[in-house]
Amino acid sequence: MANKRKIPINNNSAQNSSESEAQHRDKELEETGVVPPEVFSESPEEADIVVESTAEEVLPEDIRILKERCEEAERRAEEEHDNFLRTLADFTNYRRRAREELEQVRKFATEDFIIRLLPILDNFERAIKAAEETKNFDSLHGGVILILRQLRDLLAKEGVEPIKAVGEKFDPMKHEAVARVDTTEYPDETIVEEVRTGYTMNGRVIRPSAVKVAHHPRVDQDG
Hints:
This protein is α+β, with helices and mostly antiparallel strands. The protein has 3 helices and 8 strands; from the N terminus they run βαβααββββββ. The longest helix is centred in the middle third of the chain and has 74 residues. It is elongated.
C-alpha cells in the first residue's frame, strides 16, 4: 500500500528551513513509520501537495521465491506424472507377457503329460485286440492290471496319490460318506468299504473318496 506524506511548498525565503524540516520528517517517518503530527497541523495558507510514494514494480523476495518453488513443483509433478504413465505401461506389458507365458507353460505341461499318457493308451488298445483274438480272459485281465499299474505310476510322478480309505477313521476332509452300515464288527465311524477312490495332488485333496461308514446301532434300553 502506498505511503502518503505531505510536502509543504514555502516561499523562497524559507526554502532552506523547509527543506531541513522535510528531511527531518522523512528521517522520522523512515525510522518510526509514523507521520509526524506537525505535518497535519500546518497553516492552511500553505500550499500543500500530497505525493504518493509507490513501491517498485518488483515482486517482494518471499513472493518471488514462492513463485519459483511453485514452478519447480509443477515441473516435478509433470515429470512424476510422465514416470507414472511409463511405469503403468511397463506393468501392463509385463502382465500381458506373464499371462502369455503362463498359458504357454500350461499348454506345454499338458502336452508333456499327454505324450507320456499315449503309451498307456496304446497298451489298452493292444490288450483289447489280443483279447478279441485269443478270447482269453486271463490274458486280458493280466494286461489290464499291467496298464493300471502304468497309469498309477504316471499319476504318482505328477504328485497324484490315492487316499487311504478302508479301515481308516472317517475324515470329512478326505472322505465322502455315501452310506452308513450298522455293524459292531468295526469301531464306530470306521470306513468299511470304498465305493470310489479318492485322490490327492501334492498333498491337496482333488477328489474325496466315496465310502461306506460303520455305525454302531443304538441299544434299546427299554428292552
